[in-house]
Predict the structure.
Amino acid sequence: MRSSVDTEVLRQSAPAHTVHPPVDEGWWRTAVIYQVYVRSFADGNGDGIGDLAGVRARLPYLRDLGVDAIWFTPWYRSPLADGGYDVEDYREIDPRFGTLAEAERLIAEALEHGIRTIVDIVPNHVSDRHPWFREALAAGPGSAARERFWFHPGRGPQGDAMPTDWVSSFQGETWTRTRGDDGAPGEWYLHLFTPEQPDLNWNHPDVRREHEEILRFWFDRGVAGVRIDSAALPVKDPTLPDLPPASATTREHPHIDRDELHEIYREWRAVADEYEGERVLVGEVWLDDAERFARYLRPGEMHTAFNFGFMTQPWSAAAMRSSITRTLAEHAPVGAPATWVLSNHDVTRPVTRYGRADSSFAFDRKRFGTPTDVERGLRRARAAALLIAALPGSLYIYQGDELGLPEVELPREVIDDPMHFRSGGVDPGRDGCRVPLPWSGDATPYGFGGAPWLPQPADWASLSVEVQEHDPASTLHLYRESIALRRDTPDLVDGGFEWLELGADVLAFRRGDGTLSVTNLGSTAVPLPAHHGVILASAPIDALLPPDTTAWLTVRPGSELRRGA
């Protein structure tokens, strides 16, 4: 973000590379979208940090994988206090990753491979090094500059207590007290995440105007959409009340899912709709209330939102079926497609998660030393990948999941994630799923580039892209085949969905009139239903479907099978 004068200059300047995504109405409804965490994808200049040069060099890999779009986690100038989600300037690429001109070339080159680009926008907060926040600190209490944030006096006679009892998304406190040049304590400022990420005041017109200009800045450069981080958090109750008691019956929360958000996203949608090629808004919306969740997907607001519910479920047919049923039901009234994902840059990788005794996911339960059976986890992760690829909607893949990478338990001294430090060192944090990818070779850095910023395990050679490309039974080949079949099989593109009853531990459904997906989540093999042929399976099968395995089957149109509710 910049001053209003700088913004006006940039608004008038054309990008060096003007590109337009193809006009393909509804492309996002069934798209396969690949998440790139730039810092760990591929290092093009040999400094050990992933960068845009590395991504550009690996675009043929993503083309061959078959993805429709790349979602980049924040690549903007940032101190990286929270992996780039502390943005200092949306109109500059962080120098560790490259330049704006390089980003423009990447967007254009990706389109040449048939791949669109989605960028991350973080509306809740900015970096404490952002010019607006520096101006606010320098200007002092009561200044206009401070009105763009949430500065407030503390409670108590000396103002020593925080203004509210709000809870941080990263554990720890949500307010930090400022100090003057003389060291005297001053006002407090709000940060729902870390102190390095001060929250913006979305009641201020500058904040709203600036974010609309940021959207235009990147749409002008050819991006096909934006992913909206923490989309239910930006608006706060200006009276700053304490949290309601657990017994409260009202849905009103002082800083989560406030009704005023919908006006903002309608304005963003109007900006997106100014552009050809159907630019999309994708929300990160963590809400338990299905009806409230669906409001973000009404016509004129967001196109899609992440489905976190399925990603957190244990390896249980009942739990997964319930999550799938609920997801499809909450999207149906607003006509939006569901989204399916097994992990992302915040969540324990499925190979590790599904190998644990407790295979569900929750941030507050992450601990060092949690045992896992990696072989079992890999079988289940492959089965789960095939399962979600058969569901109606769009599919997200986090980098490395297509290689079957496990979570890495890193030494404490190399951990960089603030979630670890704000937990008092109890939580191992999220860096274990952010370890740089193995591309080739027998030893670290496995073709990544220079010595990686996070250490790679010594046993990752067999998981490299180079090895898996030559192994037809590899997880990489499974992903490539499933994505290609998903695109080329009419039943999986737009066929209907119907549950089938094949046993308590089996998830089975029909897509369209001739395609079945069957997953055995139990501990013993089960008979396959009558079928015409096997399309693809996550493990070798015969007449029986082994435990922790998914198979796609063909059936003759009109075949009678046991239908579910």
Summary: The chain is about 25% helix and 15% strand. Residues 1-12 have pLDDT under 50 and may be disordered.
